[in-house]
Amino acid sequence: MKQEILSQIPAVNDLLAAEFGQRLVEDYSHQLVVDAIREITAEIREEVLTATEKELEVIEFDLSSRVILKQVEDYLKKEDRLLLSPAINATGVVIHTNLGRSLLSKSAKQALIDIADNYSTLEIDVNTGQRGSRYKNIKEILFELTGAEDCLVVNNNAAAVLLALSSMAGGHEVIISRGQLVEIGGSFRIPDVMERSGAKLVEVGSTNKVHLADYQQAITEETGLILKVHTSNYKVLGFTKDVETQELAELAHQKKLPLLEDLGSGIFVDLTDTGLSYEPTVRESIEAGVDIVTFSGDKLLGGPQAGIIVGKKKYIDEMKRHPLTRALRIDKFSLAALEATLKEYRDFEGAKSKIPTLRMLTVSIEELKEKAEELKEELAKALSDSFSFMIRKNISRVGGGSFPLEELDTYVIELKHEILSTEDLAEGLRASYPPIFARIANDAVLFDLRTIQRRDFTKIVELVKSLD
Ligand SMILES: *Cc1c(COP(=O)(O)O)cnc(C)c1O
After folding, report:
1. Is any atom of ligand 1 closer than 6 Å to the C-beta of 233?
2. Which terminus of the chain, N or C, has less C-beta within 10 A?
3. How far is the centre of ligand 1, averaged over its atoms, from the C-alpha of 136 (Å)?
4. Does 173 score more than 70 pLDDT?
5. Could you tell me if 304 and 418 lie in one domain?
6. What is the CATH number of the domain that holds 226?
7. Measured at the alpha carbon of residue 364, what is the angle toward residues 363 and 366, in degrees to the nearest 5?
8. Model confidence at 330, in pLDDT bands (50, 70, 90)?
9. Rounded CA gap, 95 and 398, in Å?
């Protein structure tokens, strides 16, 4: 019986000669299609050979060319997929570092395509035709947004901190408050970065309190710099005391020292009007007298990965000459997307709808409810009775180490299956294409509408349905 079934598998050449086979050869290549046919037919052979007699009676093997070539096509498509693939973020965490942090605005995406398709003015002066600076393109817009006289952009904010410390502290002591020895994950710890930069750490104050006098007393001949790190991913609450940035800047300048501030997730506009709590803006730091401020491009700013350094020209000039700058510099794609993102901020009201990160952070609860109802309706139309789903109020998070305590009201769809466990459901969703990442709570899978894009509704419904 087995031999009989096996003999029905069409020959490679016959499959190749079929019209469908020819079409696949045109779309892929002769070799790839031959390899795929061998793979698929070997799988079928294996399946037949390992099946019990009983299974053979039950399973119907459809060995027509059309059916086999359809499997070959699916196989080729799957092999062609990139492993770094789009994903659906149903977690409600807006700046989700593991899912790629920020989505880009339309203008930023267009900038990427234009730069990919063409030669560009990356490092050329259009007036003289001579070599120009990579950073000239964004200097003016960063001045508009922050008031800083000069800028430099590197790969990410971790690189910005490393470069600024290496260049400005130059092997001398760096004074920092104990309450600001931040770890931001991925083994980026401020004390470790300092060590790499050659600077020596001098901690002042206690975990919850630091006074101006603590800084004052720590300053010696060996001091190279005062560092302030914005504790963006945690808050010290209760019996606390911090030194105002302006006071710290005045002290530093009195002692002829620079003040460096790592803002983490920098913002240009105070977001309290949108219901979020207060976070310092880059301009406030510059106006308070900070000499150099560093921040990320892809956290609250909602742009591409980048480390933005703004501040006094004399320190920026020194950084530009530092050997690390070449190793840490930003690439042309990120730079193009960053310029486009920054320009959106000229009209902040517009930016709130055009920059996806800002849009998701400021979306109204009414709209989230509407989205939940729409998705629920589509699920109801497509899914069997094995699934149950309910709309519930819940909380989403900002993520990316920003606004650690902020709880954003949201609506979620709570999904359950009568046979599949919650873990099985979540695993199935992750294994689909594109993968869906959701939260698990109350023994259900939660789809948070804050980070789900409407354009993905149909896909989500199809993928959930296929798990049944
Ligand atoms: C996120 C963060 C960084 C690192 O920024 P990346 O852009 O992720 O490299 C550094 N410092 C602080 C305070 C941060 O919050």
Report:
1. yes
2. N
3. 24
4. yes
5. no
6. 3.40.640.10
7. 135
8. very high
9. 6
